[in-house]
Amino acid sequence: MKILQAVTSGPRRKKILIWSIAVFVLFTATGFFIVPPVLKSVLIKKLSENLHREVRIGKIQFNPYVLSLKITGFAVKERGSTDTFLSFDELYVNIQSISIFKRGLVVKETRLQSPYINITFNEDRSYAGLIGVAP
User: Fold this and answer.
1) What is the DSSP string of 10-79?
2) Is residue 13 included in any domain, yes or no?
3) Is residue 133 part of a domain?
4) Could you give the number of structural domains in the chain?
5) Distance CA 22, CA 25 (A)
6) Tens place of pLDDT for every residue, the chain, 135 residues?
7) Cα(115)–Cα(9) distance, integer angstroms
């Protein structure tokens, strides 16, 4: 109790404490609840536009405290078909916080579970299903 009184004694310290709590709550809410749905919609839109294929993402989870990102249920469909071209069950990436100071990504851990890719070698020695190759 004495510690709390010491921290909040004085109007300037109270303002600093209130602002610190507000920033902490905003950072937490943004990281856990706002970033995942926004990132999901942007990724689906941009990947679909650039690949000219249907892209689905099941769920995105982001942890702003440990800088980790988990994408589950990712699938890219074949052009003009319902068959799957590329998919995975889960992608997990954990980035180290030192990346901020190094001005580049320093990846601590990555995991990819159940990757799948469908590439077909045609009789004319061309490949069907590759990104950028017209069917």
Assistant:
1) SHHHHHHHHHHHHHHHHHHHIIIIIHHHHHHHHHHHHHHHHHTS-EE--EEEEETTTTEEEEEEEEEEPT
2) yes
3) no
4) 1
5) 5
6) 566 565 566 788 888 889 999 999 999 999 999 999 999 999 999 999 999 999 999 999 999 999 999 999 999 998 888 899 999 999 999 999 898 888 889 999 999 999 999 887 778 877 766 544 444
7) 57
Q: Please name the amino acid found at residue 8.
A: T
pTM for this predicted structure: 0.79
The span from the CA of 95 to the CA of 72, in Å, is 18
Helix (H) or strand (E) holding 5: helix 2-7
Joined tokens for residue 31: 């990281």
What domain range is 79 assigned to? 2-128
In a domain, 44, yes or no: yes
